[in-house]
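Hello Y.,

Per our agreement to keep a running log of every chain we model this quarter, I'm adding this entry. I've kept the format consistent with earlier entries: sequence first, then predicted structure.
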Amino acid sequence: MSVVEIENSILTGEIVAPPSKSAAHRALVCSFLAGGGTVKPIIDSNDMRATVGVIRALKNDEKELNCIESGSTMRFMIPVAAALGKEVTFVGEGSLLSRTLGEYMTLLPQHNVKVKSDGFLPLEISGKLTNGSYEVNGDVSSQYITGLLMALANTDGDSAVILKTPLQSKPYVDMTIKVMADFGVHITETDFGYLIHGNQKFRQLDYTVEGDWSQAAFFLVAGALGGRVMVKGLDINSTQGDKEILQVLKRFGAKVVFDDTTATAEKSKLVGTDINAENIPDLVPVLAVLAAFAKGKTVIYGAERLRYKESNRIESVVTNLKLMGVDAEETADGIIINGGNRLTGNALKGFNDHRIVMAFSVAALFADGKTTIDDAMSINKSYPDFFEDYNMLGGRANVL
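Predicted structure for the entry above:
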């Protein structure tokens, strides 16, 4: 088991944001369906290896497709493989084995695809996906909608994705539609959900992946807590929902400036606020850390789906905050934090969850005494160079 030891320090300076994992997943699938072109830069993370590996396996007509621990890979590639008429088995590892396939278990058999699974991986599919109407719950995971949009554009006729419940994490679907449009494929948003014309051709191109606002958020929060951090390589016009970090930081009272490609946050007097996390679930761990240092109460809500990520992130965050002496409690759909007091370093749990490890590495910067976090190398899921960038800015993290 890997453990990171962290001593107090202040992060100051500038870094370049890593390429967006979310955008890269989508661009890789579109490029595969186009039959050529390049997608870069791509971060060398486990999730990226999963998508690249599944695409390579499909090209080689392999029968087993390993999604490793990537929920995006699994939920994007199942309908895509079905639209291509592939007879394959999807497998995975670790926490992915406990993540449900419920929507596909119902939808795929309704559209000519035989499914063999108990609702989780492994999943065997055979038959060729047909066009038609797909009724989907919008509050389970936007990844189902993304997978269907990319797959159905490749079928023989028009299709409709009909939302049975309001769509949460809509910015992720907006990103899908934007990336697909870059590849020449168009989706129409409607009152009921989305209309997809079939027989569309993905065009070949060399695609440049934008910077990742989700990962930039860790360093912008560190800057707001103490020091001054500039993150370059971002797109202020991005469809990434986590671009909202700029506005949330401002609501906490943070000094934040930004232009088309750069965001900077510096030490500020912070006050608690309310946060609707419905469209920014990945930001919750680091925003909870920010709230712990902000004077007064912060209420984070609309985040019930975080219980079904790499860890139960609501529980994971509250557990670690309490270990650091923070007054925090779980609610059904979020967290209540009474912040503004000193935090104490402690032996924290990483929960084998990359975002928990990175968020509490930020908390450790300003806690009294040394902090350790186990499962430190779970960062390899999305941001293997996190601690290198962290230390380059002045952090004192030692991974054992």
